[in-house]
């Protein structure tokens, strides 16, 4: 499927199943709620990933949000594509909201990997779509570099992804034990207090049940952990 502009008369004549309900202010609000999602996807994937929102209110001016428009060469206010039009038609007769992944080409010949999701209002009526188009024609080295550079350096770089709390606590405690194992001349209680301080900074004690788990990993009682936490709070 070639990604290209669609003439107005084609849209008007082709879409026999056009929604017969008027758009409300609430419908537009629903679409706008997806705007931050486009920003999130773009930041994660980098400049080779185009993310856009279609509105079905006016197929001739369907694109109401687009990021990294250089990928396809389209912009705000552009009409829906023929493929997007078919997705809109199918959404009226089906509950299937996700289409793809599929391949498409831009006017310049760049190959894209695409996927789209229909957006529905509270009445389950299709009012738009969220589309993601990844440029497969850019060199892999550039894609990987851009993908990595899209990481927000202010975020948490040491987050541990674990299947359950116990596994996460064990991993974090092991990391801190390793970090403090190279420090000599420190009593076991002082070392444990330092580990609890480090874990507290990483937010582990914000999770219910973590005190008991940390106590078990360190071989102390939960009352000892609570004592360390009180001392941390008292010292500001």
Compute the number of helices.
Answer: 9
Judged by helices, strands and strand pairing, the structural class is alpha+beta
How far apart the termini lie comes to 61 Å
Radius of gyration: 26 Å
Summarize the amount of helix as a percent range: 40-55%
* Domains (count): 2
Strand content: 15-25%
Query: What global shape is seen?
Result: elongated
Task: Summarize the structure in words.
The protein is built from nine helices and five strands, in the order αααββαβββααααα. With 236 residues, it is an alpha+beta fold. Strands 2-1-5-4-3 form a five-stranded antiparallel β-sheet. α6 packs across α7 and α6 packs across α8.
What's the helix and strand layout?
Blueprint: H1 8-14, H2 25-32, H3 35-45, E1 49-55, E2 63-67, H4 82-93, E3 98-105, E4 111-120, E5 126-135, H5 140-149, H6 165-181, H7 188-201, H8 210-218, H9 222-234
Antiparallel strand pairs: 1-2, 1-5, 3-4, 4-5
Helix pairs in contact: 6-7, 6-8, 7-9, 8-9
Q: Keyphrases for this structure?
A:
single chain; 236 residues; alpha+beta; Beta-Lactamase; 2 domains; 17% strand
Give a short overview:
The protein is an alpha+beta fold and 236 residues long.
């Amino acid at each position: 499927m070639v990604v290209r502009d669609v003439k107005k008369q084609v849209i008007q004549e082709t879409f026999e199943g056009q929604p017969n309900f008027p758009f409300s202010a609430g419908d537009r609000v629903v679409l706008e709620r997806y705007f931050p999602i486009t920003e999130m996807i773009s930041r994660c994937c980098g400049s080779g990933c185009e993310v856009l929102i279609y509105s079905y209110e006016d197929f001739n001016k369907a694109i109401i949000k687009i990021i990294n428009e250089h990928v396809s060469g389209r912009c705000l206010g552009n009409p829906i594509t023929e493929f997007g039009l078919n997705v809109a038609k199918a959404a009226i007769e089906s509950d299937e909201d996700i289409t793809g992944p599929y391949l498409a080409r831009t006017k310049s010949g760049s190959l894209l990997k695409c996927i789209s999701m229909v957006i529905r209002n509270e009445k389950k009526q299709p009012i738009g779509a969220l589309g993601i188009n990844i440029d497969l024609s850019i060199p892999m080295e550039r894609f990987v570099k851009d993908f990595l550079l899209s990481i927000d350096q202010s975020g948490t770089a040491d987050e541990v992804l674990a299947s359950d709390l116990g596994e996460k606590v064990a991993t974090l405690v092991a990391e801190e034990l390793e970090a403090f194992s190279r420090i000599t001349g420190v009593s076991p209680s002082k070392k444990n207090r330092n580990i609890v301080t480090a874990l507290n900074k990483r937010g582990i004690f914000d999770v219910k049940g973590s005190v008991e788990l940390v106590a078990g990993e360190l071989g102390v009682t939960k009352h000892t952990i609570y004592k360390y936490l009180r001392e941390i709070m008292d010292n500001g």
